[in-house]
């Protein structure tokens, strides 16, 4: 995967079709986000990347920064005055994404910074974001879905911050991985009405395993093709926290969809009644699509498959148990491998490693989730170990239950 080439005549025709569903002001803002906005961000990234200190973006490219600020604000003022921006969920959610991309770019270019502000200096953008988000039941900033599963392409080109190859690698492989996780979660949820002993359950478990193997494959390609320096200095900064009104919202995270947590809980590797894990669910809830929020709430009340298999230990000698339990353990193992892959490759190589070369205020604000880097890395390590069912004495994992089940499968 690489940056898509743009065919002007094709893009114009596709834009005309896309615009038929939008109000005039929404249409103009969307067209700007897909064109001049990308060009200006890309130009700034080249300026930043050429600097001796690539983390220092202040005092350079100020004319371009001001152009982004002023042009975007001009569109937003008209949208605020229009008032009725809800032309159905899809249109409103897409507009919220465009607005969020604009505000994230202002944060990236240091035209806003929650560390030095009590409220956002961008009042019209904040007002519009809170208006739309409140009506939709989501967070008032761009979320992962805006750049993945709900990122409409026009003329073969999806929305992005820049035209950099590494950003498109990140967006496209993340989207592939998210969709594969969703396939795995869908297969697992379909087991519940059938029961763990049903002959078709093994088929569904194998489907889930195949989907998780696809996640591993997409991750391997991403980690192999992504340039560490470009990702760290030119892609991740757009995912920093920023204020909307008075409240600071953490950056979008690739895990902000329900599928991965449905897998956690349906397998029984993570538990909704675990204080650490339940806090994670609360923190991410409004960053997900409303349909995902509903799916996650429903999943929290389901009995994990691990517990259901352990309820059947008296049937361990039967053929169905051996077949289905073995397939279940394979899914658990794959889910754990992906968690370790993500932590040990993406986090260590593309975040922790490059962060070691910067210091001061730039290091303090390096994470998208807000906390200092050591705090973030520790939290990610805990989540990894829950998913791999690690043998730890300081946190409660499913290690003992998984080992008990393994002993029953010959």
Give the SSE map.
Blueprint: H1 8-19, H2 24-33, H3 36-49, H4 62-82, H5 89-108, H6 123-136, H7 165-189, H8 199-225, H9 228-235, E1 242-244, E2 247-249, H10 258-267, H11 275-284, H12 290-299, H13 305-310, H14 319-355, H15 360-364, H16 373-387, H17 399-408
Antiparallel strand pairs: 1-2
Helix pairs in contact: 2-4, 2-5, 3-4, 4-5, 4-6, 5-6, 7-8, 7-10, 8-14, 9-14, 10-12, 14-16, 14-17
Protein described:
- The protein folds into 2 domains: 10-142, Methane Monooxygenase Hydroxylase, Chain G, domain 1, CATH 1.20.58.600; 165-408, Methane Monooxygenase Hydroxylase, Chain G, domain 1.
- The protein is built from 17 helices and 2 strands.
- The protein has helices at residues 8-19, 24-33, 36-49, 62-82, 89-108, 123-136, 165-189, 199-225, 228-235, 258-267, 275-284, 290-299, 305-310, 319-355, 360-364, 373-387, 399-408; strands spanning 242-244, 247-249.
- The chain has a two-stranded antiparallel sheet.
- Strand 1 (242-244) and strand 2 form a beta hairpin.
- Helix 3 (36-49) packs antiparallel against helix 4 (62-82), helix 8 packs parallel to helix 14 and helix 14 packs antiparallel against helix 17.
């Amino acid at each position: 995967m690489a940056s898509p080439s743009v065919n002007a005549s094709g893009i114009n025709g596709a834009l005309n079709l896309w615009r038929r569903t939008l109000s005039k002001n929404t249409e103009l803002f969307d067209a700007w986000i897909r064109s001049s906005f990308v060009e200006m961000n890309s130009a700034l990234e080249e300026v930043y990347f050429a600097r001796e200190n690539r983390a220092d973006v202040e005092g350079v490219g100020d004319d371009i920064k001001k152009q982004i600020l002023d042009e975007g604000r001009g569109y937003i003022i008209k949208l605020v005055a229009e008032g009725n921006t809800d032309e159905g969920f899809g249109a409103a959610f897409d507009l919220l994404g465009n607005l969020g991309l604009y505000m994230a770019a202002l944060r990236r270019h240091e035209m806003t910074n929650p560390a030095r502000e009590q409220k956002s200096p961008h009042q019209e953008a904040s007002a519009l974001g809170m208006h739309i988000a409140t009506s939709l039941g989501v967070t008032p900033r761009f979320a992962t879905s805006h750049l993945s599963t709900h990122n409409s392409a026009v003329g073969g080109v999806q929305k992005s911050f820049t035209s950099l190859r590494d950003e498109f690698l990140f967006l496209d492989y993340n989207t592939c991985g998210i969709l594969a996780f969703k396939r795995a979660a869908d297969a697992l949820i379909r087991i519940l009405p059938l029961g763990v002993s049903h002959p078709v359950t093994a088929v569904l478990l194998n489907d889930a395993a195949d989907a998780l193997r696809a996640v591993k494959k997409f991750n391997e390609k991403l980690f192999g093709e992504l340039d560490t320096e470009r990702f760290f200095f030119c892609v991740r900064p757009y995912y920093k926290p920023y204020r909307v009104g008075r409240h600071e919202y953490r950056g979008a995270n690739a895990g902000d969809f329900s599928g991965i947590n449905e897998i956690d809980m349906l397998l029984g590797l993570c538990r909704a009644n675990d204080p650490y894990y339940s806090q994670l669910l609360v923190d991410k809830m409004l960053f997900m699509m409303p349909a995902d929020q509903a799916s996650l709430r429903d999943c929290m009340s389901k009995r994990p498959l691990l517990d259901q298999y352990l309820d059947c230990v008296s049937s361990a000698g039967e053929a169905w148990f051996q077949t289905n339990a073995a397939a279940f353990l394979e899914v658990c193992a794959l889910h754990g491998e992906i968690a370790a892959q993500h932590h040990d490759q993406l986090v260590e190589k593309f975040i922790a490693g490059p962060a070691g070369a910067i210091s001061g205020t730039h290091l303090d604000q390096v994470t998208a989730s807000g906390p200092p880097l050591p705090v973030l890395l520790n939290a990610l390590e805990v989540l990894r170990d829950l998913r791999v069912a690690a043998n730890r004495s300081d946190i409660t994992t499913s290690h003992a239950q998984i080992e008990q089940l393994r002993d029953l499968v010959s």
